[in-house]
Amino acid sequence: MKSLVIAEKPSVGRDIARVLGCRQGGNGYLEGKEYVVTWALGHLVELADPESYGEQWKEWKMETLPMLPERLEIQVIKKTGRQYQTVKQQMYRKDVGQIIIATDAGREGELVARWIIKKSGVKKPMKRLWISSVTDKAIRQGFLSLREAKEYQKLYEAAVARAEADWLVGLNATRALTVKHNAQLSCGRVQTPTLAIIAKREDQIKKFQPQAYYGLKMKSKEALWTWKSGSNSSSTFSREEIQKVQKQTLNGTAVVTEVKKKQQKSYAPQLYDLTSLQQDANRMFGFSAKQTLDYMQSLYERHKCVTYPRTDSRYLTADIVETIPERIRACRGGIYAPVCGKLLKTSVKANKSFVDDKKVSDHHAIIPTEQGVNLKDLEYGERKIYELVVSRFLAVLLPACQYQQTEVTAVCEGQRFTVKGRILEQPGWQEIRLLQKEAGMNTEEAYEEDLETEETAKGEIITGSIPDFVKGQKILFTEAKLTEGKTRPPQPFTEATLLAAMENPVKYMESTDQKLRKTLGETGGLGTVATRADIIEKLFNSFMIEKRDQYIHLTSKGRQVLHLAPQGLTSPELTAKWEQELSDIAAGKTKKKDFEAEIRTYTVDIVKDIQASSKTYRHDNLTGKKCPECGKLMLEVNHKNGRMLVCQDRECGYRKTLSKITNARCPQCHKKMELIGEGDNRRFTCVCGYREKLSAFEKRKKESGGGVSKKDVSRYMNKMKQEAKEPVNNAFADALAKLKL
Description:
Elements: E1 2-7, H1 10-19, E2 24-25, E3 29-31, E4 35-39, E5 45-47, E6 74-76, H2 81-91, E7 96-102, H3 107-120, E8 126-128, H4 136-144, E9 147-148, H5 153-181, H6 191-207, E10 212-219, E11 224-228, H7 239-249, E12 253-266, H8 274-285, H9 289-301, H10 324-330, H11 337-344, H12 380-397, E13 401-412, E14 415-426, H13 430-438, E15 461-463, E16 474-476, E17 479-486, H14 495-503, H15 514-522, H16 532-541, E18 545-548, E19 551-554, H17 556-564, H18 573-586, H19 592-612, E20 622-626, E21 633-639, E22 642-647, E23 655-665, E24 672-676, E25 683-685, E26 691-693, H20 694-704, H21 710-725, H22 731-736
Parallel strand pairs: 1-4, 1-7, 7-8, 14-15
Antiparallel strand pairs: 2-3, 3-4, 5-6, 8-9, 10-11, 10-17, 11-14, 12-13, 12-16, 13-14, 18-19, 20-21, 21-22, 22-23, 23-24, 24-25, 25-26
């Protein structure tokens, strides 16, 4: 008898088939002597549409809500129905004795395979392949240690519970809001609290009152000294105080009271999980969270040079340590070759900073695989992401950066002044940073959110040696410089900082319940590493948020949805409760049926809240242009990548692109330009006022031998046409499309 292997995607299926010697080609499967390998295309089966339960839910009416089927059914997704039939046929083959689930090793991967098996009705023994990378070696080892599928039954139940809860709460809330206000409005347990986080930040910025602060620098022939207050701050909000200190100490003699020399170490940042990788990629290269995930999927599935991307762990398990030298050898191409050579000459020293079995659940941190890749085969974005993964992997293997820090304190007229110096003794992992800087990469740390002064407790640190001072030495202050600044509000969110807030939303919770706050921190925040990118994209595509430069802002629609949505759906607390219960279901501590009963009660409550609400929704972006399909006035919206007109009728769905933000740079101010107009009238415009016809732009770039090629522009225009065909203003489609709430 043969074993049927079900992979999640064709690329992974073909890799498994090759390793297992399945070379006989079929329509949607590959076959060998012992195995038949087939694959899904992501989900082939989903929860059934409301219409499938009867006539009462075919039309969107408030009186038919809430929708609470006695049992939620599953259905085959029409556009991938052919592949479902292929998988089903293989499962029912008489020569197939068992099924091996080889979908992604996680909650959603379990759901992909189990729903296919359930819908087909097949009853055969099942095994589970659980691997973190799809290299040949990992696949072989995985098949040598297959697990019983029943070990993952509770994980499957948790996945079903999550999907059904999102269906019940998300579809009912979305349908109720949409019908109540006759507008395309949606809400859910993740996307709506994410809007609330952005709103809270915008309110902080709006209410922020800048406050002036002052500092004092004193110059002597030996060094530049920084004044320190009694609380060790280098600034004060009192101008009178700092002026008094200046008058008191200028031309005065200070006495050195302390000379402290310390051997200091700094350690490499932790290995990447998906969220931290998305943050760095956004900060350093401007990649969106979705782009980074797409690049990672390609590196994982197509090039097989990185491990499983959808992980929330930043640690490795002990069994990975012995494979590290092989992984280093696979990374020897590119700018990190010198570091790889150095590491291969030493033995790997694993420590708790990056190896800890207790801190790995389903998947370990993202690291390179043992399978090398020719960097020339990678697209621009793929290469940048691969190099980030490699750099972090190599950094944790390098020793700590060591330096000697000297801090000298001098007192003049009772006032304290300091000077600091730092001498690098061993670069250690900072060698990675030096190579990155040489390659032109932005390695600055992410913006630190600080509502206080910028120099709260830090004096000026001189990189390099400072003069030798001795205790009791006298210093003459010859010049004084009063410094002044203003406290700054927190920055608006970028995709990088929004991802961080979604991962750790505790400070945005209204509740003071410490147990809930702890739960939210332990369960990974809002959404999962696998869904956060899609949530942000969904908010852009439904025009609830927009991007100005690199910053994210709420639209009027987004702010109104927050006002209209039931209060429970606007806070991270709901996700904290759900994720805790889903984790308990997966661990066998809670029964799925008990969780479902709670969700049904909650669904009834939120529909009642929306029905009883006296709040109203107002389109404040109406234009005078009529929809060519239904004749109603159109709305002008800012999309993530430009501006467009969309029909206000939720059932019409017509839209038209007005402009697209391109990668073409303005020759005057070097900012990205917009491409507007149609046909021969297409032209680039810039915020600085620069204008240029597309034809003139192409001619100029051709003559200069650089910039965007005709092929790039053509590809870009085709992408615009394709996007224009995609219906995003259909409320029902928006609510059902892979409901990521």
